[in-house]
Design a protein that fits this description.
Penicillin V Acylase, Chain A; about 25% strand; ten-stranded mixed sheet; disordered N terminus; globular; alpha+beta; 13 helices
């Protein structure tokens, strides 16, 4: 697709043509029904408790559905949390989160109340990695950054368990800080893990980094959520590297206004930031000098899912004609099935349950966030996307 045609089509978007949408008032929020091009969408404002409550109430069915679909997984989380060691770990993670980001804990409590679910059931989902209950095939995401004389893009495949494929949603939130944000959300999980943009022009996507051990520190989802209210890129990187941290994580952070991109790898006790130019990519293993030798990195996961996608993307980028890049050039890489089931565009296969749930394309020069619904192999071909923004 030519760039001018891409931008023309992208104008038919969620927030630029609201009169075309089916929406209803849901107390303090405005709710948009899902279509083949967009996820269910909620716009909400209020206190942190009220925001969480509205999200939990409106998407109660989605939250209960994922707990039902992944009942063995969720029961495992609860069993760990209720054990002596699990409860002690959970309490320490909760205390640190409450100390640094009490607003986020209020949001989680509100979500639990709104969904009519005990706090432990929601909290367990939000510290799933730290509890050590990730199954044999944790989620993985693939991300590509492009910067040349004309373009500055971040593109990201959001991968997760196939059980989420038809119950993901997006939200636009105006919290008390005044820094609004838009996010793609996993039911039961606080925002920030999925692709996000805030009203200060800060974007975030993340890559899971597998670890065989959790430390006492801030949970990765709490850190990701806190970044959504960052006022600039410097504050976003400061939050990403805030100590103590419980679990490794990788953040793609960028500023629409400053036209700067940062790749931030963190592990408990260490972190490193890079500000690359040209073409750069990241999957789900550590690459940087200060972090790559982390002794608890899950090598089995690195050597299967993450390296497989890394190799495919690297090969495809090396074959790319870079003198006239178009969005479709990069989207086609994220749509490939080479080396499946651990390909950039993921589909479940036998006992492999990973799936690409959506693809985000951030055009930093244009100040636009395009979100494709579902696998990019179909969504890109059929223009199944909306444009999100402020």
């Amino acid at each position: 697709m030519k760039r001018r045609n891409f931008l023309k089509i992208a104008g038919l978007s969620l927030l630029y043509l609201p009169q075309l949408l089916t929406c209803t008032k849901k107390n303090a929020g405005i709710y948009f029904e899902p279509t083949n091009k967009r996820y269910a969408h909620l716009e909400v404002k209020g206190s942190y408790r009220e925001i969480g409550y509205q999200v939990g109430r409106v998407f109660s069915k989605n939250i209960k559905e994922i707990i039902n679909r992944r009942s063995e997984w969720h029961s495992g989380l609860i069993n760990i949390l209720k054990s002596g060691a699990g409860r002690k770990l959970s309490d320490k993670l909760l205390d640190l989160s409450q100390k640094h980001f009490p607003n986020i804990i209020e949001e989680i409590k509100g979500m639990a109340d709104g969904a009519g679910i005990h706090f432990d059931y929601i909290w367990a989902i939000n510290i799933k990695s730290e509890l050590g209950a990730v199954k044999k095939e944790p989620p993985g995401c693939s991300s590509i950054f492009v910067k040349d004389d004309k373009n500055m893009w971040v593109l990201h495949n959001e991968d997760g368990h196939t059980a989420y494929k038809d119950i993901m949603f997006t939200i636009k939130v105006t919290p008390p800080s005044g820094v609004s944000y838009i996010s793609m959300v996993y039911p039961g999980t606080i925002t920030g893990n999925g692709p996000s943009l805030n009203s200060r022009g800060i974007i975030q996507t993340t890559n899971y980094i597998g670890s065989t051990k959790s430390e006492i520190g801030l949970p990765r989802y709490v850190i990701g959520r806190a970044i959504l209210e960052a006022k600039d890129l410097n504050e976003a990187t400061q939050i990403a590297t805030l100590e103590p941290r419980a679990y490794p994580y990788h953040h793609h952070l960028a500023s629409f206004y400053k036209k700067v991109y940062a790749s931030v790898e963190t592990i408990p006790g260490a972190a490193e930031e890079k500000y690359p130019d040209g073409i750069y990519f990241h999957t789900n293993h550590l690459l940087f000098e200060n972090t790559k030798d982390y002794k608890f990195q899950d090598q089995k996961y690195k050597n299967s899912s993450s390296l497989s996608r890394y190799i495919v993307i690297n090969d495809k980028l090396n074959q790319l004609e870079t003198n006239n890049l178009q969005p479709d050039s990069i989207l086609s890489i994220l749509s490939t099935h080479e080396r499946k089931p651990y390909s950039p565009c993921r589909h479940p296969q036998e006992d492999i349950f990973g799936q690409t749930l959506g693809t985000a394309f951030f055009d930093l020069n244009e100040g636009r966030f395009y979100l494709y619904k579902g696998n990019p192999c179909e969504a890109v071909k059929n223009n199944l996307y909306v444009t999100l923004g402020f």
